[in-house]
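Methods — Computational structure assignment.
A single polypeptide chain was analysed. Its primary sequence is given first, followed by the predicted tertiary structure written as structure tokens.
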Amino acid sequence: MSTANENRLRSTYAGITLTGKPHPLSAWFILALRLVMGGMILFAGIGKFTGDGFDAFGYLANRPPASPVSGLYAGMAESALILDAVNFIIPTTQVLIGLALIFGAFVRLAALGGALQMALFYLGGWEGEFLALFDSTLIYVVLFLALGAFAAGRIVGLDRYIEQWRVGEQGLVDRYPKLRYILG
């Protein structure tokens, strides 16, 4: 028997409607995905800080010619200022994204940041072959976006509590609706 509160997925985009009923264990797997992806990117960032020293020069300067960003990345490698910024931004954002996912705070913002970073790595590594379109970096892009779409921070995460904070007589998200885009 179906009830009004039954867990359902439904989305319409460009005139196409997708519907489904998630498995009762779905929330557990979304939580597991959030923690695994958080741990993966957190330790990637920590490794860049604690290893032999992170230097993006080799990655930026040696992109396959077919990569749509090879010229841009080569130009970035030639600028000491940009290279220093990249060498700071990549590990720092990886640590911040990892912590946000693990604690479930600002998950949509973190997921977007992770997807963007992975998309930039993906574009930099693409060699122009059709089958090379489907590599692990592209999978990471989709997984990060899925975490944001599922509002994974509301499942045993701090976002669930942050969204309930009161600002005067209103809830935080009711008072500042744009926060819905970074929380969840």
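Note: Helices lie at 26-50, 57-61, 70-78, 80-103, 107-125, 136-149, 158-162, 172-175.
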